[in-house]
Amino acid sequence: MNLNIERYGKGEKIVFIHGSGLNTNIWHKQRDYLSSFFEVILIDLPGHGNSPGNGCDSVEGYRDAIFNAIKESKLEGCYMVGHSLGGAIALSFAISYPQVLKGLILIATGAKLKVFPQILEG
Cα(89)–Cα(82) distance, rounded to whole angstroms? Predict the structure, then answer.
């Protein structure tokens, strides 16, 4: 599955992973500021934004989709930023593929995320 990947700027690579139901647009302020110093990489999760297909049914499914996208795009040696579900994905990614990352930045997230059943039904 080819995920939507947007790249801005030059320098060390920072990959941004958004939360559930969101897309790369949530990172516009980070993109605008940080792309003067770094290469900012924004990825839409499967079934989100401009990425095709359906969403995954597990954090691990998203993690592996992100891993494949990073590998195919030769983005190893990057920093990863994750927000909410994106943070859970980033944590799982760091545990499973530590050799790919230089560092991890987590925003409003945790290893376990409780979700209201009504959100999942939507």
Answer: 7
From CA 60, how far away is CA 18, in angstroms rounded?
A: 15
**DSSP reduced 3-state for 14:** strand
CATH number of the domain enclosing 68: 3.40.50.1820
Residues 59, 26: Cα–Cα separation, whole Å: 20
Look-up of token digits 């989100």: 48
Q: Residue 98 belongs to what domain range?
A: 5-121
**What's the pTM value of the predicted model, to 2 decimals?**
0.91
Tally of structural domains, the chain = 1
**47-89 pLDDT, tens digit each:** 999 999 999 999 999 999 999 999 999 999 999 999 999 999 9
The single-letter code of the amino acid at 68 is: N
Alpha-carbon distance of 106 to 62, in angstroms, equals 16
